[in-house]
Design brief:
alpha/beta, 9-stranded mixed sheet, 3 domains, disordered C terminus, 629 residues, Rossmann fold, elongated
Length: 629
């Protein structure tokens, strides 16, 4: 379905909200009514043709006193769900009395199967019914959603000749509409969406990146696909369709099972509803609710293909606290054994947990299969560079590179996503790298490969055409150096971090100008006794230059003690700043951390700030080459 059609449908639904809810809800709360009503209408539309069959089956089952009726009722409805109330939405729209409509509408909702009840509960939609009844808009709401010019069903509407009158609204198209509506709701409420939803063109590219390289190696069998931040489930279903197509092209028969986890109750409900609408009742049960980070729904499961667009720049502090805090966390997805360290930490800053979603996927890679696992995940730029050596982000990158899992990073065009215009990148990883990619990482610049949209969708003003996606795939599969494709050894991305001590070296010279400068500084600081003291020291030791500030300090201390002048930190700072000057030829200043005669002086304990240096991993001879001599 074209973006223009999706925009039209989104505008139609928004119009329902704006016309009916304006005086009842603030705009940011429209979602509490509109999102569940869209789902209910989608479910209702698919159940309409088999309503009578379901009612007859229900009557027969009750007469026979059958306790477990679910399977038989699903068979009667032809779907993975059903509704045993005597109503459809069309039956309800004619109700004149609001209280009767309320009772019948609640009975209609109660008639849905248990798997739909969970969806309604996540929306908390029943909490809104009384408000809609009191405002006398429930009937109008139902009637507007039954408008004959719009089809919210995943099946097309046909005319009298059997031709498609209104096309179907598939899972990803509906997801795009949901995402556009949520964007508008948040925008009206001056909120930022916590997630950045993934447009279909990017999802198709991600699916191709994990599937096309091994298309000729796909065998008949069962494959598991996972998304740990599944949103409305679009990534899973697109990957499923692509895998089915490739298997069919290669003469293979595959069974594909989808697994996902989502923390937002609304989008979780949408995902489950659309899987039910596709007849994927079993797959709907594979959707876990809760935080992937602190409530992993698939602790021991491993997957063949994994893809996600996790939230970036979003705090995971709550998850961290649930897991015991940085000192108490024991999760073996994030505290691992690597390079001889049994407590190698992958924990990043609590302000951004996006790389933990990648670490979670890496912990779920299949180890004992020929294809292993393949992963595609979207990140913003901070995943490339944030975190110092030894910190969580850096440790994750090190772990990935030292295991040789990273195949490529693809830079996408700007303004590709609905809710953000920032730079984004697709990371492609596998634990079965082909020989020609071994020890290497490919960087692909696809920022110039896009075409403008005729009408923006939120902040998304461009898309990847089929030709653009083919360019990316050609660059990836050809694995050759071009203007847009660069190949580097893994070591190019590593570095050693060393601390270079730069001791403070000060020279003192009692030239006429320097003495005058120091006296002026002392007058301004109201420290004239200090100026007089240093002039007496100058008469004692001469003009200089004096290149050993340690000996000079001892002389000053002795003179101060003799003249009963107290040398506090303020006065020492004045001497260093207004009299002494830095000189690389001078001796390093030794910091006194001991009482005289009580300990040996440590020559490494010096004044001055250390400088941090990053030594590239590709330097011949490594760290030793930079420190020898």
């Amino acid at each position: 379905m074209a973006n223009g059609d999706l925009n039209w449908i989104a505008n139609f639904i928004w119009g329902i909200a704006d016309d009916l809810l304006r005086d009842v809800y603030v705009r940011g709360k429209y979602r509490d009514v509109i999102l569940p009503m869209v789902v209910i209408r989608r479910l209702d539309a698919i159940l309409e043709p088999t309503k009578e069959s379901v009612l007859r089956m229900k009557e027969n089952l009750d007469a026979a006193k059958v306790a477990n009726q679910h399977a038989a009722l699903c068979q009667a409805s032809g779907e993975a769900f059903y509704n045993t109330s005597k109503f459809t939405l069309r039956d309800l729209k004619a109700r004149a009395r609001q209280q009767q409509l309320k009772a019948d509408f609640e009975a209609y909702l109660d008639g849905f199967s248990p798997n739909v009840q969970e969806i309604l509960d996540k929306f908390k939609f029943r909490n809104q019914i009384q408000t809609l009844v009191d405002a006398d808009i429930l009937g109008s709401m139902i009637e507007r959603f039954l408008d004959s010019t719009i089809n919210l069903s995943p099946k097309p509407v046909f005319d009298a000749n059997g031709d498609v009158k209104i096309p179907a609204l598939d899972n990803h198209a509906m997801g795009t509409i949901f995402e556009e509506l949520i964007r508008r709701f948040n925008e009206e409420n001056n909120e930022e969406a916590g997630e950045h939803f993934t447009p279909r063109d990017v999802v198709k590219l991600m699916a191709d990146l994990i599937l096309l390289p091994i298309a000729d190696k796909i065998e008949s069998g069962t494959y598991l696909v996972y998304d740990g931040a599944c949103g409305t489930g679009g990534m899973l279903t697109v990957a499923q369709e692509r895998l089915q197509d490739l298997a069919r092209e290669h003469g293979k028969e595959v069974s594909i099972h989808l697994y996902g986890q989502e923390v937002n109750p609304e989008t979780y409900a949408i995902t489950k509803a659309d899987l039910l609408l596709q007849g994927e009742g079993g797959e709907a049960e594979n959707m876990a609710y809760g935080s992937t980070l602190s409530q992993d729904g698939f602790r021991i499961q491993q997957f063949d293909f994994m893809l996600s667009n996790p939230p970036y720049g979003k705090s995971w502090k709550t998850d961290l606290e649930r897991m015991g805090g940085k000192d108490g966390i024991k999760d073996d997805r994030f505290i691992i054994t690597h390079s001889g360290d049994s407590e190698f930490s992958l924990l990043p800053r609590s302000s951004d947990g996006q790389l933990l979603f990648l670490a979670n996927k890496l912990s779920k890679m299949k180890q004992g299969t020929p294809l292993g696992s393949r992963i595609a995940e979207v990140h913003n730029g901070s995943s490339l560079f944030t975190g110092d050596a030894g910190q969580g982000e850096s440790n994750i990158r090190r772990w990935i590179l030292e295991n040789d899992w990273l195949e490529a990073i693809i830079a996408l065009p700007l303004n590709m996503f609905y809710n953000t215009g920032i730079a984004t990148y697709i990371w492609v990883l596998t634990n079965r790298k082909p020989a020609h990619r071994s020890g290497k990482v490919q960087l692909i610049d696809a920022t110039g490969w896009s075409q403008p949209l005729r009408k923006n969708l939120g902040k998304k003003n461009c898309e990847l055409s089929e030709a653009d996606m083919q360019r990316v795939m050609d660059a990836f599969l050809n694995f050759a150096e071009t203007e847009q494709s660069k190949i580097f050894p893994n070591e190019a991305f590593g570095y050693w971090k060393i601390v270079v001590e730069r001791p403070l070296r000060l020279k003192v010279e009692f030239s006429k100008d320097r003495v005058a400068h120091f006296r002026a500084a002392c007058v301004e600081a109201k420290e004239l006794p200090l100026a007089n003291l240093l002039e007496r020291v100058a008469a004692q030791i001469g003009v200089g230059p004096h290149l050993d500030f340690n000996l000079f300090s001892e002389t000053v201390e002795n003179a101060a003690e003799k003249d009963n002048v107290k040398l506090n930190p303020k006065r020492w700072k004045l001497i260093q700043m207004a009299l002494a000057v830095k000189d690389e030829a001078a001796e390093p200043i030794i910091k006194k951390l001991h009482k005289a005669g009580k300990a040996e002086v440590d020559p490494l304990c010096v004044f001055g700030k250390p400088a941090l240096s990053r030594i590239p991993g590709l330097i011949p001879g490594g760290l030793a080459a930079t420190t020898s001599g």
